[in-house]
Records
---
Amino acid sequence: MKVKIVKPDTTLFEGDAKLVQLPGTNGLFAIMENHAPIISSLAAGRVRIVLPDDKEQTFDINAGVVKGQQNEVLILVQ
């Protein structure tokens, strides 16, 4: 699936991923390929991305929102 993490002034990540783990306001949750459409607010915490080669990247965020549909995940963060 395509994942993009954007701050107001820059793009932190843009690429393919197998899994995205996010700090939701009600706790951690993950989005995988073919996930149902989702929109959620995000709390301060760490976004974890598992790449297609099983390597991981993490990004610390203060807050944000995520929108996922049709194997495209857009994460807007502060």
---
Amino acid sequence: MFVRIAMQCFFDSCSEADSFAAGTKTFGIFSSTTNEPNLSIHIHECCEIFLCISGGKSFLIDDRVYDVKDGDLFIINQFEAHKVSPAPDVSFERYIMHVHPTFLYSNSSGSVNLSDCFYRESGRNRISLTPSEAREMKELFDSLRTDYGYGDELYKKIRVLEILLMVNKLFGTHGEGIIQNTQHHRVVQLAIDYINNNYSQELTLDNIAKSSYVSVNQLCRLFSRYCGTTVAKYIISKRITEAKKLLGEGKSVTDTAFMCGFNDYANFIRVFKKTVGVPPGKYKNSV
């Protein structure tokens, strides 16, 4: 007797959703209302759509820090290290969808490329939705919880394509905003710029602080406050992000380690595997 099983779309964690999307070359979704203050800076194997319903504070994506407001939608590709920070004592409701690039390309047409929003020349990551747009997007995500019975997998694929079409369309009509340029925010931006321009060299807190015109203690305090992570963790994420790009371009593991500021080859192997989940050699062969 044939027993039909509904297609699973939602998973218990962000990493499980990403692993499923990467393994099946499709998509996976995670949603939560839990405030998790220990979310770390990370990168994924897939592209990501992040919808904040409520309770967001700031979002660090690559070299930008965004203020997060209710109804903000963020687009992140697999090369952009990121970390979201929730507001304290508030329900942090969000939807996160991981989509494998293969799914994007295989479902695009000659006139519509679903990957456009993820690999944008402008570098924009945020769309501030109107209340009606946010409701529509949330309803599309919630529709993926439904068991449609006959044709369940196709119905859910259609809903995901609707989300991707909506995101790409909105990205062409909305602007974005970066966190306000107060003096404290400027200190953080100067530090990020210095790290991004010198990640292949030896980096010290003293040099980074001097580039931002503050003391080391003040730099660490402001960086942690506005980015939700430490300077050291940001440096590692930047180096690993660049390493993934170089390995994808065909560079050797040894050259990649040197070009990304890892003077210790063994340490590069260890940090890359811990961050990405596989050794750099295996990652290079996979891409």
